[in-house]
Amino acid sequence: MPESVVLPDFDSFGAQAIKGLEDPEAATAATQALLKEDRNSGEPVISAPDENHVTLERGVCREGTWYREAEVKELTGADEEAIAAAGSNSYKVFETLLLRGVRTVGNEPMSRKLAAELLIGDRELLVMSVRRATFGEAIEFTELPCPYCKELTDLTVPLGAIPFTHLADPEQTEFEVPLRHRAVAFVRLPTGEDQAAVFAIKDGNGAKQDSEILNRCVLRVRQGDGTVIKRPPATHLWMGDRKAILKFLTDTQPGPRYNAFAFTHETCGEEVELPIDLAMLFRGV
Fold it and tell me: Torsion over CA of 201, 203, 209 and 212, rounded to 10 degrees?
């Protein structure tokens, strides 16, 4: 095997003129050095991905500019104590994860006010990113029972395998939803503030919670005759129209779809649904 040739740096030839006919070996060496220099200068420098940085689907708008870059951090023991202090209230646990695990969105430090502005999907993405920074990419399950063949199985779920919905246009803030009788609803997507208002309804009345979201997110309705009603009370909307709007808000909201995750069990070949919740993401915290 021939010995490998180490090409000299092009700068080592200085400013001297090299004539190929008089000194072909020097000319060849200079040409090879020039090619090496050109190749090296054209190679892109790709830095390793930073798991603490995340790009949101929409982010926040400040003076007409959208800021979508956010930074999260690895949780500490102090954060764990704060999360435990939130008790079994999943909403309080979620809020604590946001406030303790997210450093900034855009140029702003995380705060309750900032968290309330974010789309629900962006909030979900941030919590997933906090989980990644703290425990890594994979969620480990042991002895999961298959509902079809009853066999127990171990499973590793990469966070990247969880279905994700993107916004077609991150800066679009108003959407049209076709309704019955040729009417159209103009809506916005729910934010953390809307989510908090729903969780504040303590009586467990799902219809009342739906009305709260509709009252907040339906900006106006254009009826079939062209009449426009601004902020129509949710209780005045037809039941079918309510369902259509709520489905649109759910389907269009960006972010991870934890409830949509499924895997194929190798033993029986069946697709097994495995909805992932907050407790699974932060098991043991």
Answer: -50
Asked if 265 and 147 count as a contact pair (C-beta separation under 8 A), the reply is no
- Reported in sequence order, the residue ranges of 138-187 that DSSP labels E, i.e. its strands, are 138-145, 152-158, 164-165, 175-178, 184-187
Q: In a 10 Å sphere around its CB, with 0-12 CB exposed, 13-18 middle and 19+ buried, how is residue 146 labelled?
A: middle
| Contact call for residues 119 and 189 (beta carbons, < 8 A) | yes
pTM greater than the 0.70 cutoff: yes
Q: Could you read off the pLDDT of 135-188 as tens digits, one per residue?
A: 999 999 999 999 999 999 999 999 999 999 999 999 999 999 999 999 999 999
Dig out the tokens for 188 from the structure: 């916005």
Domain ranges in the chain? 10-42, 53-150+277-281, 168-253
CA distances (Å), origin 4, targets 11, 43, 64: 21, 22, 58
